[in-house]
Amino acid sequence: MESEYTNDEYTIGWICALQEEFDVATAMFTEEHGLPQSLPKEDNNAYMLGQIGHHKVVMACLPVGRMGTNPAAVVADSMRRTFKSLRFGLLVGIGGGAPKPFVGKDVRLGDVVVSVPKGAYGGVVQYDFRKLEAGKNGFTHRGHLCSPPEKLLTNQSWGELSDEYEYPAVGDKLFQSDYIHDGSKAVGSGSFATDDCAHCDEGKLITGRKQRKDNIPVVHLGTIASGNFVIKDATVRDYIDECYDNTVLCFEMEAAGLMNTFPCPVVRGISDYADSHKNDGWRNRAIAAASVYAKALITIISPEDVVELPKVNKLMAELTLTVKGVSEDVAKVSEQVQEDREERDRKQILDWITSIDYDSQLSDIVKKSQECTGRWLLDSPEYQNWANGGKQILYCPGIPGAGKTVLTSIIIHDLLDRFSGTSGFGLALLRQLAGRCSPLPSEVKQLCSTNYSRKTRPREAEIVTTLRAITKLFTKSFIIVDALDECQKADGCRTKFLNILFDIQKEVCISILATSRSDGDISRFF
């Protein structure tokens, strides 16, 4: 769907680094506009446009597998050139916290950190590493970058997040900086390894942190450190923090690429402590918290303020907002995002089975046919018995050009009308049958997963097993085979195909209809 608004009508940009961040971000729209009306050839970004409050917002995500300051700069620069009326942007996602349990701000998992100038630093500082030298940590101070807009929002009252964005079962564990994670008993291997610190020495946990009254995220305003790789060493984390006078609250990988060309508030949900004890337990919570905060910020900014923003720092200096009403939106985030993910996965799996869109072909043929075409067949006793009975077989032979495919399409259209209100009605073979299941049956997902991992197409036995399992999910199904004579005879392919259909029919309630040129070899099966 293409937006009804021109690119120049969008005034706020929102950038994410990860697809999962982008999924939640788009759920923050109060109204989706769709895709841009036009894009310059040199702009390779994928955008989603929409409304938040009174503002038209453009969202973009870094390319899959590309993280760091350089890709972020490319995405931001393209966005700025394509949407020339943007007044400011937001960089929203997750980051690693720099906890200060007893001195300063005690950043915890699930909290939100927002970049604002602190002392001599402009909200975001950039670090770099070079070859280690004797007696040195190899850390190179790169200075601070341009300040983001100052109208930022701090809030201590949040609506509770729901479903997969709820407070995680994985505990908030902060270990001593010099204690390395014990991953010797992680489950799985490589990128699929899972480990929740179950085997780490809890005697090395930092104790005495002040108990919070609830699980509501706290927003911290301060310095964010940005570089080109993940910090996962607590001693390095603490060293960098010290270099910036203990002002760093969060570590991430994209902001430094934006600050000098696309100054914007950086909003990060804390998903780990930038140490060796990283795990994914807090990612969803952190992503949702950051997104809700960013939406709240956009919501309270007046359109007049945005219009006056060539000077980005004209945003108000201090603001406190109670995010009432946002909680209702957040309550829908899990459901919306899950639906989007399932639909994307569903399409990928169905396209993997076959890219042929039978529904479109059916629609085209039916539209081209004359009214009342095929009525003689639909009214015939043979067809009525086939459509209304169980485990029926109907064979329709004919000469070439007699209109068998048109009749087949009319039959399918009639069945769709006839059973449109019937729960459990399925139609045609694997793709169409699976496509009428929501969510996709586990057997189909397993078929795709198994063959995708071994880079093969499914074997005949796997297809039959899956088809048999899916047909059992329906009270009644119809399998319609058009132009059966075009199914190759070599190696007994056609015979094997028909035998499989008839074998499945013995187990479940399916009715079979086949069209073909007159062929004695085929007729003997019917």
TrEMBL record:
Pfam families, sorted: NPHP3_N
UniProt KW Repeat keyword: yes
Example of a GO MF term: catalytic activity
Domain Nephrocystin 3-like N-terminal: 373-418, 428-517
Full protein name: Nephrocystin 3-like N-terminal domain-containing protein
UniProt KW keywords: Repeat
GO biological process: nucleoside metabolic process
Domain of life the protein comes from: Eukaryota
InterPro entries cross-referenced by the UniProt entry: NLR-like, NPHP3-like_N, Nucleoside_phosphorylase_sf, P-loop_NTPase
